[in-house]
């Protein structure tokens, strides 16, 4: 399974799981591009892959996180 998040105005608004079968491609096309296009076709907007194990992009994206174009950043909690 792959995880993708919807980005609006630099903020993660939604995170979904995409079945690996959607990402498969006999021509070797990049799975992330296929997954992002699949999500955009279904739901519209910009979609970025996130890693459940935080293997790339800094961390697993959560709703409310900021996307800086390279990594996901958790909101700062003031207290």
Provide a compact summary of the structure.
The protein is of the alpha+beta class and 79 residues long. It is built from two helices and five strands. The mean pLDDT is 90.
Describe it for me?
This protein is α+β, with helices and mostly antiparallel strands. The chain has one domain. Helices cover 22% and strands 30% of the residues. The chain contains 2 helices and 5 strands; from the N terminus they run E-E-H-H-E-E-E. It has a 3-stranded antiparallel β-sheet with strand order 2-1-3. Strands 4-5 form a two-stranded antiparallel sheet. It starts with a strand and ends in a 6-residue tail after the last strand.
How is the biggest beta sheet arranged?
3 strands, antiparallel
Integer average pLDDT: 90
Name the helix and strand elements from N-terminus to C-terminus, one letter apiece.
EEHHEEE
Structural class: alpha+beta
Gyration radius, in Å: 13 Å
What is the spatial order of strands in the main beta sheet?
2-1-3
Give the low-pLDDT segments: none
**N- to C-terminal distance:** 37 Å
What is the total domain count? 1
The outline comes out as globular
């Amino acid at each position: 399974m792959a995880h993708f998040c919807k980005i609006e105005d630099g903020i993660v608004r939604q995170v979904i799981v995409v079945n690996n079968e959607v990402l498969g491609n006999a021509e070797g096309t990049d799975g992330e591009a296929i997954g992002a296009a699949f999500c955009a076709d279904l739901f519209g907007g910009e979609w970025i892959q996130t890693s459940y194990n935080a293997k790339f992009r800094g961390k697993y994206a959560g709703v409310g996180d900021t996307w800086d174009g390279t990594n996901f950043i958790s909101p700062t909690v003031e207290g």
